[in-house]
Design brief:
This protein has nine helices and twelve strands. With 253 residues, it is of the alpha/beta class. Helix 2 crosses helix 8 (223-235). It is elongated. Residues 1-29 form the signal peptide.
Length: 253
Amino acid sequence: MSKFLKAGIASATILALLGGTAAALPAQAAPKEIKIAAESAYPPFAYKVGSKFRGYDIEVAEAVAKKAGYKVKWVASQWDGIFAGLKAKRWDAIANQVTIRADRKALYDLSLPYTSSRYVVITRKDDTRVTKIEDIKGLIAAGSATSSFADEARKYGATVEVVEDNASRFALLTQKKVDIIINDSLWALDYIKNNRDANVKIAAYFGEPSLQGFAFRKNSGYVAKFNKALLALKKDGTIKKIGVKYFGKDVSK
């Protein structure tokens, strides 16, 4: 047998073996599905545009789920029934600004936080009277009569002018008919980002941070995977990028 024929047979044998090996390799596994519930009218966190979910919580959840090896199937829910649906296994997780609290930790697996918010004092841009919460004593705050924000205003010595809608509160503030608005920092950042011509600023942050994360049924096996993925996406800047898109800054810490 000639050396050329031997080489040809050897090459054919190698190709056959390689072909057999390739044929035997399994196809890449498709991502597993995870059903996640969110409200459909809670901007900028979770809302629908047509049939598609949008919002900060939505984008964070999809990025984290993908990193953890899951494809998200979204399910719309009202807040009042969202935990009941989780318990009843109608969905596997909640991504809807779930505040991390001791009572919830006793009932559910809660992830590490992906948002952090605090109380804020909002003033006109040219008002320099407030740099800390104690400075609001004697000022007039616009707010709902029975909200926690109104309670905080009274606690620190401000008078509350009852104004139930946001548009009217900001109108009174810019017209100098009230001095301050107290609200949540994420809400304030969203307003300022989407109303760039508004003559308002965040003058002071106060209170303990409120942290929000994903909720899962106890011992469902998801939380460790989501925590690992979330930490990786915080490290590589993905979570910050989503925060900047919706709020103008990183709101995960």
